[in-house]
Design a protein that fits this description.
Inosine-uridine Nucleoside N-ribohydrolase, Chain A; 9-stranded mixed β-sheet; 13 helices; 35% helix; disordered N terminus
């Protein structure tokens, strides 16, 4: 169940010049897993923890796939925590099966999770609250619904001071959404629609947010030519990404850099063009989950365009490592 977040004033966060510490909160889809691979291959950040929201996935295969990706990428001492909320508006069942299908790719064949990256005993919101309650400041990559973060803020609103910025894949500001339902008007994007109350709470919290909505992701399709170039690279990160993306594209007319564009933006903000907009999330009704411009909304850096060549080159370069 989603926990209502409390709104408090946020102290100004001064970022150090040191390599930033990153928490990835994700919902177990294929694009989430590839986003993890990209960020973990960057020398410019330290991934400290990964939390899972079973929205665009089922929890157990998503957890196992996350463990195996992290292990195969050579990481250690990354904590993994499970969330348990499937959201007010669950994702379609056929989409949620992708994490399980990834377990069968050649790059993961015959592997089992190691003890190097442990699953913690507390759930994702409590683990986030614990990590963010210390002195360390984190950047958060959010590639799923904002449920875990909203619930962590409800547990301890003071943790906001230790969040430098959240990079969020979600929303559709000046373009149509991708939710197709008789009970919805089609204006929302799925990550926000899954738990609109959580998204509204986090946007209103005052935490610095860079939003990567469909406005930007629509500009970066995942092309066969790019996938062929990626698959030609022998590195394990390239093979994990290429083989996983091939599964995700099956039966879909157009597939885009969604979560993966958000990860790319965290690493290189120049891959998108942003504008500071006042944003509000509609939490109820036929437009629930819609991200609208509102003079009374919260200031959010919103990506409205993206550079496909820069994005593709970033992936090819980092995943070749």
């Amino acid at each position: 169940m989603w926990i209502a977040a409390c709104a408090l004033a946020i102290p100004v966060v001064v970022r150090s010049a040191a390599i930033p510490d990153v928490i990835i909160d994700q919902d177990g889809g294929i694009d989430d897993l590839v986003a993890i691979a990209l960020v973990m291959r960057s020398p410019d950040v330290h991934v400290r923890a990964i939390t899972i929201c079973p929205a665009d996935s089922y929890l157990e295969p998503a957890t196992r796939a996350t463990q195996l990706f992290v292990d195969r990428l050579g990481a250690s001492n990354i904590t993994i925590a499970k969330g348990h909320s499937e959201g007010a508006n669950p994702f379609p069942a056929r989409w949620r099966k992708d994490a399980g299908r990834v377990l069968g790719i050649a790059a993961l064949a015959g592997t089992a999770p190691s003890a190097s990256n442990r699953i913690v005993s507390e759930d994702a919101p409590h683990h986030l609250a614990k990590l963010l309650s210390g002195d360390r400041v984190y950047t958060i990559l959010e590639t799923g619904p904002l449920t875990n973060i909203a619930d962590a803020l409800a547990l301890d609103p003071s943790i906001k001071k230790n969040i430098a910025r959240i990079f969020v894949m979600g929303g559709a500001v000046r373009v149509p959404g991708n939710v197709a339902s008789e009970k919805h008007d089609g204006s929302a994007e799925w990550n926000i629609f899954n738990q609109p109350q959580a998204a509204a709470a986090v946007v209103q919290s005052g935490i610095p947010i860079t939003l990567i909505p469909l406005d930007a992701t629509n500009k970066v399709p995942l092309t066969p030519k790019f996938l062929d170039r990626l698959a030609a690279q022998p590195s394990i990160a390239s093979q994990l990404a290429a083989q996983s993306w091939r599964i995700a594209q099956q039966g879909i007319d157009r597939y885009y850099f969604w979560d993966t564009l958000t990860a790319a933006t965290l690493l290189d903000p120049t891959v998108v063009q942003t504008k500071l907009l006042k944003i509000r999330v509609i939490a109820t009704g036929r437009s629930q989950g819609r991200t609208i411009e509102d003079p009374l909304g919260s200031p959010v850096e919103v990506a409205l365009d993206a550079n496909r060549e820069k994005v593709e080159n970033l992936f090819l370069n980092l995943l070749s490592r």
